[in-house]
Amino acid sequence: MKKLNKILLATAIIVTFAACKKADVATPPTPKQEDIATVDLKISDWMTKYKMPGMSLAVSKDGKLVYAKGYGEANTETHEKVTTESQFRIASVSKLITSVGIMKLIEDGKIAMDQKIFGANGVLGTTFGKEPYQQYITDITIGELLHHTGGGWGQDNDPAFFDVTLDKAGIINWTVNNLPLKRAPGSGFDYSNFGYMLLSQIIEKVSGKSYSQFVDDEIWSKTGAKNSFLAGSKLSDKLGKEVVYYGQGADAPAVYTMNLSRGDGAMGWLSTPTDLLRFATAVDSSNTRPDILSLSTIKTMTTTTAVSTGFGFHFGCGWVIEGNEWFWWGSLPGTFAVLYRNGNGICVAATANSRLQPNPENSLYSFFGVTNYIAFQNDIPWQDIDQFE
């Protein structure tokens, strides 16, 4: 019995020692994000100066989400605060998502950059419009739509904003039949929302899925994005985490009168800055997070052409490409968004529930100072954390 008691005592000591040892090496808690006053001041100053009700920001460094924060109000009537999960319309940043969707189909060998859009040999065939087609229409290629060099249907004559009572098929039919191209495709730049509506139609035709389902399957689910959905046009369509939008000046009546569902591939997505960085860091050609496209496909996506220059920028496939900086922005009544990737490892996404007037481009140009500060200021104390995980 004494021997047994000694054995039991020794066993208890060993077990106790092992438990203590295990506790000693327990995984430390994940560090929480600390506020960075200089970054917050840049954002708050910009919001105050340009009368932005609410804003959300996310920053990644070398593939890690190092900062994410909401500012101001998602709803000025209820005083609901913007959080990192608040969803915003991202307007033309949607084009970057559509571009990646098309590049995925190209990578899989299902379409090609030089493939025609309309006509007997086109990817959309003769489904839209009446034959014989007007001049140049059967010459447009997928690559030209991606680079905004499709020959017209852009800028001040963009059918994406014509007759909001027509659905996507209706506006494509009307445009092909009634709006001639002004020049040969590939001969000049015309920033075209309508061109990206055609690209989303191509995604549907080739994949056999709805545009939103294809993006969910091939982009959002593969990058871990969970708060991105197609936007509704009316206030009554607002999702639970979506902000309310506020027009400045002439924008006010148009905030909830657009037809965003038909403009899906050009301007139709809701997202959060964190989701946008999940997306951007999955197509950035770095090895910090797995890319969802091959390096050769990403190179094609970020290659400009001799004529794909507009607004003072050089365009790849949707993205502005200026050396190691890739970006584009979105602007609609009540909406501003920007997605920026720098070769130094910094990516920035920001969204707001208003935009500047009288020129929508003012939102982007005025925000350059904030983006540049975040991207190039070397003494910002980014923590070694990853809030993607």
- Biggest sheet details: 7 strands, antiparallel
Structural class: alpha+beta
CATH architecture: 3-Layer(aba) Sandwich
Separation of the first and last Cα atoms: 54 Å
Q: Helicity level, as a percent range?
A: 25-40%
Fourth-tier CATH superfamily name? DD-peptidase/beta-lactamase superfamily
CATH third-tier fold name: Beta-lactamase
Task: Quote the average pLDDT.
Answer: 92
Annotation, overall tally of beta strands: 12
Give the class-level CATH name. Alpha Beta
Low-confidence stretches: 1-23
Shape: globular
How many structural domains are formed by the residues?
1
How many H/I helices? Answer: 11
Strand content: 15-25%
Rg calc:
25 Å
The neighbouring-strand order within the major sheet is 3-2-1-12-11-10-9
Order of helices and strands: HHEEEEHHHHHEHEHHEEEEEEH
Short description:
By secondary structure, the protein is of the alpha+beta class. It is built from 11 helices and 12 strands. Strand 7 (309-310) and strand 8 form a beta hairpin.
Explain how this protein is built.
Residues 1-23 have low confidence and may be disordered. With 389 residues, this protein is of the alpha+beta class. A hairpin with a 3-residue loop joins strand 11 (335-342) and strand 12 (346-352). The protein has one domain: 3-Layer(aba) Sandwich (Beta-lactamase). The strands form three sheets. It has a seven-stranded antiparallel sheet with strand order 3-2-1-12-11-10-9, sandwiched between helices. It contains eleven helices and twelve strands.
